[in-house]
Amino acid sequence: MGHSAEQPIDNFQASLQDSFPIGTKGIWAEHKDNGRYSLIEEEISLPTAVILQSAVDHNIHWMQAFADKHQVKLCPHGKTSMTPYLFKKQLEQGAWGMTIATPAQAEIAALTGAKRIIMANQLVGKANMAEVIRLQSSFDVKFYCSVDSALNVQQLSAFFAERGQQVNVFIELGVDGGRCGVRGIEAATDLARLIHQLPGTALAGVEVYEGVISGDDTETRVRQFIAETVEFARSLKDQGLIDTKEAIVTGAGSAWYDVVAETFSQYTDLLPVIRPGCYLTHDTGIYEVAQKKVMARAKKNHGIACHLDGDLKNALEVWACVVSTPEPGKALIGMGKRDASYDAGLPIAERGFRNGIPIDVTGLSATAVMDQHTFVDVPADCDLLVGDVIAFSTSHPCLTFDKWRYIALADDNYIVEHWLPTQF
Amino acid sequence: MGHSAEQPIDNFQASLQDSFPIGTKGIWAEHKDNGRYSLIEEEISLPTAVILQSAVDHNIHWMQAFADKHQVKLCPHGKTSMTPYLFKKQLEQGAWGMTIATPAQAEIAALTGAKRIIMANQLVGKANMAEVIRLQSSFDVKFYCSVDSALNVQQLSAFFAERGQQVNVFIELGVDGGRCGVRGIEAATDLARLIHQLPGTALAGVEVYEGVISGDDTETRVRQFIAETVEFARSLKDQGLIDTKEAIVTGAGSAWYDVVAETFSQYTDLLPVIRPGCYLTHDTGIYEVAQKKVMARAKKNHGIACHLDGDLKNALEVWACVVSTPEPGKALIGMGKRDASYDAGLPIAERGFRNGIPIDVTGLSATAVMDQHTFVDVPADCDLLVGDVIAFSTSHPCLTFDKWRYIALADDNYIVEHWLPTQF
């Protein structure tokens, strides 16, 4: 294994005076002595992904305040951004730990300073287990992963016990028709006994992902599922099956974190942990829709989300140029599947500029996307020209982040001094 | 600008003895002295993207032979892989140059040794133009880009002439309802006169992308469009509007390269260049379908494709583990939108292994994909277990490549000694 686990991350951000990998898209600019590059003035090669600093800072504060007021721990899902600079900000603002999806992501969380890491997924495969062995040996970190089968528990226990280690596991409870997770409390209790009994696994609590629940009356079903989850965690504790100091109960993506936190906060005998990820940059698509529902529920229930500073804001954009206007009513943008997410809606034009001056982009509508192009319908009264610069928001954020090795960090005037390395 | 344009790429491949960036997925393995890591024996962390060396070598030869026999130049579209190791192989086997989509990609092509670079897209935006200025100043390279509007031609000429340079441009011809490109020969001829007349632009020929033609009787329409394209290029030459030594005519993605090459090869007064990209690794989805049509046309027309060594082979896979079997008939794979393309069909199970022994994966069918998971329907007679390793092919290749910073290069026994860095 070529890279050193012990070397902490120190390149949280880079300026154009630093050395970039060759050919990295979105980081070319002609040198300026002041190191300040204007997106509006076209001083940075496009397309480029942009983090709006004030919005991302606001969101980090907002969700931490939400968790603090509910007396639940915030363990943000880092898979969204995989951006050490943002992990560090989340931890500095009070995050209890970082959630991740894979051992490779866990390493980034550890190197960024997380002391508690929840891998909200099953740890499967010898090389992946070996990576966690190394993580636990190299870092002062508590690692947790999910299990939902006796076979995986046996595999984990054998692997970790043989190497003189234990791995902390959560039982993942699932729902019929859902994703991973044990179906039913009886099977889950049997699994708890096995974990408790085997030498290489330590039962640390219960994990769920309520985001797979959909259909009619989702809110009621989510509340019910979370209540069952908490009851199950308490029963494990009562039966003496929890092997760690604290019995953790953990759930919540960025759509139902309010419902999960409300339910969790009714119990003081467990350590409740929520794991939203997409709140970090939010979006103008599926998470905007979900957050509107959060705010509507808060208004109805006098929930805490109403009493915080404002609301989540979109903090992630892709800036790109109009490259062609080949037919009336049609424009092509120099941005495609290689640059922006397209799995939950196409990019949305937020702002436009021509030679540094704002232009109206109202009514522009993306209709299709190819590897390096986006097709846009242009209203008759819009005089879009080749070379116009447009800032697009996207849906959902995870799949915009993973298209970029460096993301420009912009102030409120769209001036960029630093680029944030991602670690996908 | 932080990176040095003059430093050639020398890290075409990396072994696990080399230093990898931290947290890079798919490259963890416990050290082996012989440096040979078995995918089947789970010696590499999964998921990981895998290039099958013999298949990719075969495909590179195959397409070069196809182009050579048609006496057309092959300028492979590098955007597919953005993998310098593979660019180098394509150039070594006889490619005339590299095609790319953006100035950042052009830099990689130049650093890999390409002497001719076709940017089969419009060059728009001051920072992007500045990057090409730098490229032309730093490398012994001929750069060409496409134009389809007078405004872009004026922008380019002003920018390049002010800096004492010229940029070679192709007029892109488009089709009604298509993507970029001038609509109609009259407008295209006007544009040619403008290019010829302005100081910063040099007209080098005509570029098309016939891949946007679809619907009824596509083949006839493609043939007609390519014939018109060639006639237009000849008329530009006849009118003395071509500013470069040779008049180039260029087209062809990986679906219609046979039709394009056949038409091109009927003319000897132009330099014909085809630009397929996805043939490199091929796939088992949309390009397999397209290639079957190529072979069917060749059979019917006694085409050259029938007289080459075999056919294109899939050379790109993502290997991943079964992480959960939560309900009868359902399995979850530890591979998702972060790891494999999903825009033109979901991943397809090709082979399976359990503890190093082959298992049958016939009938497995991916039904949905999330960021880090793939849902698979499992036939009743298939006993898939947590921990089983499955090799998946994908569709289409470009969007699997761009998920990875390193791709494992495997021999026919699925042994990996080197990882190939990508440069997205």
UniProtKB/TrEMBL annotation, chains A, B:
It comes from the Bacteria. Residues 315-411 form the D-serine dehydratase-like domain. One of its GO terms (molecular function) is D-threonine aldolase activity. Keywords: Lyase. InterPro entries: Ala_racemase_N, D-amino_acid_metab_enzyme, D-ser_dehydrat-like_dom, D-ser_dehydrat-like_sf, PLP-binding_barrel. CDD domains: PLPDE_III_cryptic_DSD (cd06818). SUPFAM superfamilies: PLP-binding barrel (SSF51419). Its EC number is 4.1.2.42. Belongs to the DSD1 family. This is D-threonine aldolase. It comes from Grimontia marina.
